Amino acid sequence: QVQLVESGGGLVEPGGSLRLSCAASGFAFNSSPMKWVRQAPGKGLEWVATISRAAASAIYADSVKGRFTISRDNPNNSLYLQMNNLKPADTAVYYCAKAFAVVDESVESTFRGQGTQVTISS
After folding, report:
1. Cα–Cα distance, 10 to 110 (Å, whole number)
2. Can you tell me the distance from the alpha carbon of 32 to that of 65, in angstroms, rounded to the nearest whole number?
3. What is the DSSP string of 83-113?
4. How does pLDDT run across 43-64, given as a tens digit for each residue?
5. DSSP character at residue 62
6. pLDDT at 102
7. Which of 38, 54, 107, 120 has the highest Cβ tally under 10 A?
8. CA pseudo-torsion sign 86, 53, 73, 114
9. Is the dihedral of CA 51, 52, 58, 60 positive or negative?
10. pLDDT, tens digit (0-9, with 9 covering 90-100), for 3-12
11. What spatial distance separates the first Cα and last Cα of the chain, rounded to whole Å?
């Protein structure tokens, strides 16, 4: 069955960095655009970034543009999110998910992982 397993979250001070990973299985990973979405405490889901099937293009939410980088390793069925210059407002549970298209800026998905907690605090 389809599985997406996120890892790499943790507690980081403002200005720090984290790299999230997502291990995919049960579907043709290299045939699916992928994305990251997040949910801050007490708020709804927020789209973060989307990457195309072959990693030729990526789009980002304005709130993370210039600080976050989405990438993927198709031979190893893995998705990544490099997060730099982290801010307290980035505190959230981060989920990897199958995207509908490379221009997908929605929070909806046919499948989403269980998430990994990212906390930015001094």
Report:
1. 26
2. 22
3. E-S--GGG-EEEEEEE-SSTT---S--S-B-
4. 999 999 999 999 999 999 999 9
5. T
6. 86
7. 38
8. positive
9. negative
10. 999 999 999 9
11. 40
